[in-house]
Amino acid sequence: MNINFLKKFLILVCVFITSTLSAFAENNVASAEFSFQIPQYLRIEPMTSPVLVANITDRTGNLAVPLSSGFKVVTNSPDAKTLYLKANTVTQGGYEEAMFERGGVVYIAFANLAKIPKSSSLANCKLGANSTDSPGVVAYPVT
Known about the structure:
This protein is α+β, with helices and mostly antiparallel strands and 143 residues long. It has 3 domains: 1-37; 38-77, no CATH class; 84-143, no CATH class. Helix content is 23%, strand content 24%. The longest helix is centred in the N-terminal third of the chain and has 25 residues, at 3-27. The two termini are 41 Å apart. The relative contact order is 0.11.
């Protein structure tokens, strides 16, 4: 247990007892009201066992098994929070952002690690180019 928290709690109990003793002695009734400020808390927990690796079939481009991951965000804040997801893929230019939006749909791009594609292949894929203009990169909608 956190020592600072324990010290604060013991001081609070002492203040409570001291403040109520005189009131209790006068009317045999004791009451007190306290307010606490608790720091905001945020925790992200996995909801499912993620599927993070899948092979792409040669003929159709479909994934052998769907990639999946689920999260539960736990907070004590009354305010709505926004969760940002980020993904990178590797190109000859280094690690580049793999998530993008086109036509109101969010996609994630994957690169062929056996033959690292050029940055232009990823850029073309993000623009909706066909596979001949974006060799080594394929994108799937995020649902």
